[in-house]
Write a structure and sequence with these properties.
heterodimer, A: alpha+beta, 8-stranded antiparallel beta sheet, 5-stranded antiparallel beta sheet, 19 strands, B: alpha+beta, 17 helices, 33% helix
Chain lengths: 416, 488
């Protein structure tokens, strides 16, 4: 039988000394890990996972921890696998608009690396953790409207499987259809299929100039008309965001990027199109691209068909009235994904009532409701993910790639 | 029961003339766009509904009979090559456009809908379907999904995978499931992302929800003649470094131009060693400004002639030469191999020089047509099958070009797929562990390997096998040892 001391020594060997016993400060959703490891490279991650696989230990991977409270709480936790030391910018092929980066590199640091070449990774999520965390959670921000979701920007990945085998997917060229696109499978898988150690990403040029155009939106119906007006227009927006604080005044804002010589005139066209007191700003409005509500608020990710934004807002109003919970709405209505914050620290029953209420209305807007920020007890009680299409197939994928349920067991849809 | 035996079983669930058993008729389905390989299927079925497709697949699953799905059959890697003991499911009668939902910028189509038809239908509404393989006049959307097809404009607009929002899929067990929809980010694994480009090995798409793209306010296209591919390559580098993202940048070398002229008289600049087609689209003011920049960069790189399309007719003529290049090569050579490798764009110069060297060493000609903006090469290796040894030399050069692409950090296929043709090259690009990992995914969908077997993967693996960790000491695969399979 392997003793605890043996295991610590194996993990210490695997990580060149970066293994220790877990403390309460390392807890994930209230679960204290037995060990915390910080390997320095892919091989170290592989050695940790081989040990975990052999010993039947549960592993939760983490970057800088900004989104560690998303998803369902893990059912078991033996090893907290910190990836922050895998933070190298492995390559920036500026002429090819491609970068290869360690999963543990902070997104802000990567953007800094790329800026000298006038390039960036075209994502702007509210939580700027590590690149690996961004990919694992498929987090997203306003510029997704034009550049697409994270999965469209990931062109290759190095992943360590639950059994410790290192595999590569994709490559480092943008155009590539050789084999299965496992990078997409890993994107948004919340660390339940494999541990990303390196990703190759497609880059974009930083726009020469940007303007924002903001307008007040008096009603849900008006919001729909404005969104329809701009998405079917020739504005070519980089983002189209709605802000509607509970009980406050709603605003719609669009971002126009491009060459300095053309952006002001295009922004003028946006002012005209949005009408009714629309104004042009040189800076993003303060709420642009941030989470709604306050730290500690329960937040939901709600998706919708873009033409259903009025029905979405009506559903939010109804549910707010029925439950007595004030609801802030903010997000990418031009894409069909918004964040809803529950204000006033409602109790668990009220949170459940809001989630259930919005889920009942989801079919009207063609979308889904996922619980993001909430305390672990609430996330344990609720079905964080809601109904999922193709769940049996997803379970089979998990069973093949992680039959021992080593990786973040219970974290993902349907208890995966 | 074998595949032929299924005919009687399936006839009642399929429409009239939906089951083909006549040997002559079966032979008409013996290949896709890669006619080098021909296999007559044991049975052909032509369903008209998703339920019929599911019934066929369920019958195959029940009797452990392989099946292959096929759309228009324009694939260039043998991805829809039939299985001799299997059922070929032809989806060309499932060609209804079920819904055009302009308000949500989506359309819902059956898999047999022709790519260009969807754009033609949605253009009056100000929209189109952005993925544009060269075969877009005849290729089907289901085939585009299976192959994750590209095209000239994927430099800016991305591949098919970025334009598929939802799928109805018949899994290899015959279940009918729905993935994604009109809204983004359905919770769960991105199975849509792996099904796109899985070349029919993970199931059969029976309904596709696609993203429609707004037609741009302005489109400007230029055709520039250069003395050689080096100077044209310099122009491409200048454009990309300036932060301009054109809708397309295409290059053809002298031999490709000669072929296109012989075939469609596109009137490209005379005596040019290379031509570039650069297309910009977007807001009129941006396009106008950037187009001037691009024109200046082409001049600075040594362009001998620059033409600007005055209208859609002229633009179509510029593209006609490029889009007909593959077929046009038939005018200057009795036989040819179309290659589809990718290199990092910045390696274009050295790659072209090495290809030229390979060709001259082995005494064959290579015409180059490619998507210069994203490094997707389409060398056309010319040969005459009537000359003894020439076909082998051409194959040799074609394979060496793929090796070169891998050596330069690229890929063995940019848009045509792996199919039957390139399975043998997969181990050059991926390790055994990489391929094992893909196989684990395949086994989750298709534990008995009946969905388009023999494609993508060089060596059959059994789903019951435990993925291996060490390889050198493993010896040959048991199927290879038993003489039941080839290892490449």
């Amino acid at each position: 039988m392997t003793t605890t001391t043996d295991l610590l020594s194996r993990l210490t060997d695997a990580t060149a000394g970066s293994a220790r016993e877990g403390t309460d400060l390392d807890a994930v959703d209230g679960l204290r890990p037995r060990w915390v490891v910080s390997p320095a490279d892919t091989e170290g991650v592989a050695a940790v996972l081989r040990t975990a696989h052999d010993e039947g230990l549960a592993v939760v991977p983490t970057g800088s921890g900004t989104k560690l409270g998303w998803g369902a709480p893990p059912q078991r936790l033996d090893i907290l696998l910190q990836l922050g030391r895998l933070d190298a910018l492995v390559d920036h092929a500026a002429g090819d608009l491609v970068a290869v980066v360690g999963a543990g590199r902070r997104l802000d640091d990567l953007q800094g690396d790329l800026s000298s070449a006038g390039q960036w990774l075209a994502v702007d999520p509210a939580r700027r953790g590590t690149v690996g965390g961004l990919v694992a959670t498929a987090d997203t921000g306003p510029t997704r409207l034009v550049h697409g979701p994270v999965r469209d920007l990931v062109i290759g990945a190095t992943v360590v499987r639950a059994d410790g085998v290192v595999a590569h997917a994709g490559g480092r060229v943008v155009k590539n259809v050789a084999g299965y696109d496992l990078s997409k499978l890993l994107t948004g898988s919340f660390g339940t299929l494999g541990v990303l150690t390196q990703v190759a990403v497609r880059l974009h040029p930083v726009p020469e100039a940007s303007r924002w155009v903001v307008v007040t939106v008096p009603s849900a119906q008006h919001a729909r008309e404005l969104v329809q007006g701009v998405v079917h227009s020739q504005l070519v927006m980089t983002g189209c965001e709605l802000e509607r604080p509970a009980g406050g005044v709603a605003q719609l804002a669009v971002r126009i990027d491009g060459i300095a010589a053309a952006v002001p005139a295009r922004a003028d066209a946006a002012v005209e199109m949005l009408g009714g007191g629309a104004e042009q700003l040189a800076q993003a409005p303060s709420w642009w691209g941030c989470d709604p509500g306050e730290d500690g608020d329960v937040r939901l990710k709600v998706t919708h068909e873009i033409a259903s934004v009025d029905r979405l807002l009506a559903a939010v109003d109804d549910v707010s009235q029925q439950t007595g919970v004030p609801l802030d709405v903010r997000g990418s209505v031009g894409v069909g994904t918004v964040s809803v914050a529950l204000r006033g620290r409602p109790d668990e029953a009220a949170v459940v009532a809001v989630v259930d209420g919005l889920r009942r209305r989801s079919p009207e807007v063609g979308g889904t409701v996922v619980v993001r920020d909430a305390d672990p007890a609430t996330r344990r009680r609720l079905d964080v993910w809601g109904p999922v299409g193709g769940l049996d197939l997803m379970r089979r994928v998990k069973d093949r790639l992680d039959p021992g349920r080593v990786l973040a067991p219970g974290r993902f849809v349907g208890g995966i | 029961m074998d595949a032929r035996g299924l005919a009687g079983l399936l006839a009642p669930v399929l429409p009239a003339r939906g089951v083909i058993t006549d040997p002559t008729q079966l032979r008409t389905y013996s290949c896709d766009g890669l006619a080098l390989y021909k296999v007559t299927p044991a049975l052909v079925v032509i369903p008209e509904t998703a339920e019929q497709v599911a019934a066929v697949v369920r019958a195959c699953a029940e009797h452990d009979i392989p099946f292959v799905a096929r759309g228009s059959g324009t694939g260039l890697s043998g991805g829809a090559l039939p299985h001799a003991d299997g059922v070929l499911i032809v989806l060309s009668r499932m060609r209804a456009v079920l819904e055009i939902d302009r308000a949500n910028q989506r359309a819902v189509v059956e898999p047999g809908v022709i790519n260009l038809q969807l754009s033609a239908l949605t253009r009056p509404e100000g929209y189109y379907f952005a993925p544009d393989p060269s075969s877009q006049q005849v290729c089907s959307i289901g085939g585009n999904v299976a192959e994750n097809s590209g095209g000239a404009h994927c430099l800016k607009y991305g591949f098919t995978t970025g334009h598929v929002a939802g799928l109805e899929l018949v899994t290899p067990a015959g279940e009918l499931i729905t993935l994604g929809g009109k809204a983004p980010d359905a919770p769960g694994y991105d199975l849509l992302g792996v099904v796109c480009g899985s070349e029919g090995t993970l199931g059969v798409a029976t309904r596709v929800t696609v993203r429609l793209t707004r037609t741009p306010e302005a489109v400007e296209t230029l055709l520039a003649g250069f003395p050689d591919t080096d100077s044209a390559g310099r122009a491409v580098s200048a454009v990309i470094s300036a932060g301009v993202v054109p809708a397309a940048i295409e290059m053809m070398d002298a031999l490709a131009i000669e072929a296109a002229e012989a075939a469609v008289a596109c009137g490209y600049p005379q005596g040019a060693g290379a031509v570039l087609i650069v297309e910009l689209d977007g807001p009129a003011a941006e396009v106008r400004h950037q187009f001037e920049q691009v024109t200046g960069m082409c001049e600075a790189a040594g362009a001998t002639e620059i033409r600007i399309a005055a209208d859609d007719a002229q633009r179509a003529l510029f593209w006609k030469g490029r889009k007909s290049a593959f077929a046009a090569v038939g005018r200057i050579s009795p036989d040819y191999i179309v290659q589809d490798g990718v290199i990092p764009r910045t390696a274009l110069g050295p790659a072209l020089r090495r290809i030229e060297q390979l060709a001259s060493e082995r005494g064959v000609r290579v015409a180059n047509v490619f998507h210069a903006g994203d490094g997707n090469l389409h060398p056309l290796v010319l040969f005459d099958d009537a000359v003894p040894g020439e076909a082998e030399r051409a194959e040799d050069v074609s394979g060496a070009i793929i090796d070169l692409c891998i050596e330069l950090g690229g890929s063995i296929t940019g848009e045509h797929g792996v199919g039957s043709d390139k399975a043998k090259h997969m181990p050059k690009m991926f390790t055994e562990d990489d391929l094992d990992t893909m196989q684990l995914l395949r086994c989750a969908f298709d534990p008995t390997s009946i969905s388009n077997p023999g494609k993508i993967f060089p060596t059959p693996r059994l789903c019951g096998e435990v993925p291996r960790r060490a390889h050198a000491a493993d010896g040959a695969h048991p199927l290879v040892e038993a003489g039941l399979a080839d290892a490449f």
